[in-house]
Structure formats: C-alpha cells, structure tokens
Design a protein that fits this description.
Length: 418
C-alpha cells in the first residue's frame, strides 16, 4: 500500500516544468474542437492542465496547447493557437516544450476551470478521469494570493518562494548552451572620407527559450584621407555590446537590458573617444511571427548616455564630455527566404534628452540601420553582406565631418558551440 501511495506522490511531483522538453512526440489522433491525442502521458511527466508549445525540428513553432485529459502513456491536448493548420499532422514528429502558467492567454485560461467534454470514437470506456487508474487530479488552488503564501509558509520563507519563481535552474541551463561566431571582413568601404577598411570580431549568444544573453566585440581598421592634412592615415574603431533578455515574460512581451560601448578615431580626433550607453530595463513587443518570419519586434529602452569627444579649437585639442538620456527605439525583423538564405534588419533611433532642461533634441537621433543578407555556404560557415547607414549630428558639430555615413562590407563568418 505504501509503495503504491509513494508511486502516485512521485508522479505528482514530476509535472511538465516550464521549458522542459519532450522529443519525438507523435500525434495519434486528431479529434473535434482542435483536440489531439499524443503518445506521451503521466509516465513522461505530463499532468492535467499542463501548458506547452508544440514545435517541429525543421519547421519550428507549430501550436500552443493545454492538456485537458491524461492517461498513463497518452494525453489529450486542446490546441488554442495554430498559426498554420497544415503544420498539425500525424505524419510529423514534434517537440513539446513546457511553458509557464502566466503565459496562458486570459480567454484560454478558463479551460482549466471546467471539464472539457469531448468524445474519442475509439475509446469505449468512460472518461479517463473516472476509469484510468493512473489519472491524477490537480489539487492546487485555482488562485494563490500573497496572504495565502504568508499563512502557509510563514514570512521567513517568502524569499525562498521568490527565488524559486525566478527559476535559477532554468537560467543556468539556458546560459550553458552558448554559441560563438567569429567573423572577418576582408573588404569594407564607407562613405566618410572614402575609407576602405577591413573589420573582424567575435559574437556570442545562447540558444534558449527563456533567458538569452548576447555579447559582441568588433574592431575595424581603415585607411582614408585625413580631413585636416589630406594625407593618407590609418584609423580604428571599436564597438562592444552586451544584451540580456527574458524571453516571453508575457505571450507578447520580453524584457531587454543593454550595455553599448563605441569609440571611433578619425585622424587625430576621437569622435567619440568613448561612448557608453546603459539601459537596465526595457521591453520588446513581439508584433508578428510565423514559419518564415523568425521575428518582427518593436523595442523601447531608456539609455543613460555618456560620451567623451575630442575637439580641435584654435589648433588646440580638448575633450568635451556630455551626459544625458537617450530614448532607444528598435525595430528588428528577420525573414528566412529559404533553407540557405535569410535577411535581417536592425533599426535604432535614439533621440537625446538633456538631463538639465529635460528638452528632447529631435535632430540628435544617433540613428543606425543595419541590413544584412545571410548566405549559408555549408554547415556552420556563412557569407554575409552588410549595408549600414549611420547618422550622428555630433560628427558635424564637433568634428566637422559629414553627419551621415554608409558602410558596405562582405563578411565570412563561422559559428561553433562552446
């Protein structure tokens, strides 16, 4: 008796956790009301009311669903979001990824408050809830308030509950899968001073469904005409970025944290000598996605802006330091044209706001648009074409350079996992 009781208790502790994956899942039946029967059940850690995303290895995201009935080795799922009906078939193999409860849209959350009645034509037995010896009914309250938390576990354990909600184990798992890209551009041409350049750098990012970290470092060596002496000189620019995202905090929203660094030298001038932008918290709205459009996102993040520029006045060089706030607006799109070709575009518009007067300078936008065509040559080897358009008012006002710049570059890139 105790062994049987222990068995059931152990099963109740292994429901499908957020972002847990079940591979090789097959659809056994497709019923009315967008209900499917799959070959995974309680023995695989699935329980009633579990929330999950169905994906295909090749085609990607297929549907979202809630488990409405479960047996020992099978389970029924109500599909409430299906971007493409042709992606649901008994001929395909799926990956089930557990999703957090708070990501269930409000109308579909009502499915958990009532028993969904449907009929399986091949099942002559009564509903699984009354006949299946492995059926487990969830016994947690439908709503849990802060008062319930205090009375149940006591104030001294509230921090433990919060730490669990942050899901540190998931964070560690997500950050452990890190991919590195090294790239070099043997030829780059920019419009400012007819500069011909080459650049190289390294990028890193993890492939994860929840916590995502992106890092990037890049240097560019250039040969151009000095705007003061008209002599050929060498210049160098350095950029760095760190970006952290909590993906899908809600079904349509993700968080965004950002740190940017940039320095550029035109002849003897550092324009800027150093430029830091720090945004501790912003948000991304996922406007559209489907099988070919990997993302179509709009982001906003306030950035604390610290810029040091070298200025020549009366044959003397001095430094000018400006601190302020920039409102960062980003439009990001990526489209998969076919299996080997894709394009992505990243547009940043960052109007400047003076912290003393709180006036927003509409012409000081620090605008940048990066268009990239991506060609997969073989395996992890890629060939990219980049067209970058930049507009910076301070190039003109501080250094007597054109306030716009365009960069065309060809990149060879290789990706590998750490």
């Amino acid at each position: 008796m105790w062994i049987i009781l222990g068995f059931f208790l152990s099963l109740s502790a292994y429901s499908l956790e957020s972002f847990e994956r079940l591979n090789g899942v097959k659809i056994l039946k497709v019923l009315d009301k967008n209900i499917i029967l799959v070959d995974r059940g309680i023995e695989d850690g699935i329980l009633l009311n579990d929330h999950a995303k169905f994906s295909q290895e090749n085609e990607g995201y297929s549907a979202r669903a809630i488990c409405v009935r479960v047996k020992s080795s099978m389970s029924y799922w109500k599909l409430y979001r299906i971007p493409y009906s042709e992606s649901i078939s008994k001929d395909f193999t799926y990956i089930i990824v557990g999703m957090a409860d708070q990501e269930v849209p409000f109308p579909q959350a009502a499915l958990r408050d009532r028993e969904l009645k449907f009929t399986d034509p091949d099942d002559n037995k009564e509903a699984a809830s009354s006949t299946d010896p492995f059926f487990i009914k969830g016994d947690l309250p439908g709503k849990l308030t802060e008062r319930d938390l205090i009375e149940t576990v006591g104030p001294e354990k509230r921090q433990l509950f919060i730490e669990k909600a942050l899901n540190r184990d998931q964070l560690n798992r997500d950050l452990s899968n890190y991919r590195i890209s090294v790239f070099a551009s043997p030829f780059t041409r920019q419009s400012i001073n007819q500069g011909e350049s080459y650049r190289y750098g390294i990028r890193g990012g993890n492939v994860a469904s929840k916590y995502r970290l992106l890092t990037q470092f890049e240097e560019q060596q250039s040969h151009m005409k000095d705007p003061l002496t008209k002599e050929e000189v060498s210049t160098k620019s350095t950029t760095g970025q760190a970006q952290f995202v909590i993906h899908r905090m809600t079904p349509d929203t993700s968080s965004l944290s950002l740190l940017n660094y940039n320095s550029m030298r035109f002849s003897e001038l550092g324009t800027p000598k150093s430029h830091w932008q720090f945004g501790p918290m912003g948000f991304t709205w996922h406007l559209f996605e489907n099988r070919t459009w990997e993302y179509f996102d709009l982001s906003y993040i306030p950035l604390y802006d610290i810029r040091t520029t070298e200025v020549i006045s009366n044959a003397l060089k001095s430094e000018e330091k400006v601190n302020g706030l920039r409102h960062g607006f980003r439009l990001a799109v990526k489209n998969k044209i076919n299996e080997r070709v894709a394009f992505e575009n990243l547009l940043w518009v960052k109007p400047y706001q003076d912290l003393a007067s709180w006036r927003i300078e509409g012409d000081n936008l620090n605008l940048s648009n990066d268009l990239k065509l991506i060609f997969n040559l073989a395996g992890n080897l890629f060939f990219d074409y980049n067209f970058v358009y930049q507009r910076d008012k301070l190039w003109k006002t501080l250094s007597d350079l054109p306030e716009t710049n365009t960069i065309n570059s060809l990149n060879i890139r290789y990706d590998f996992d750490l």
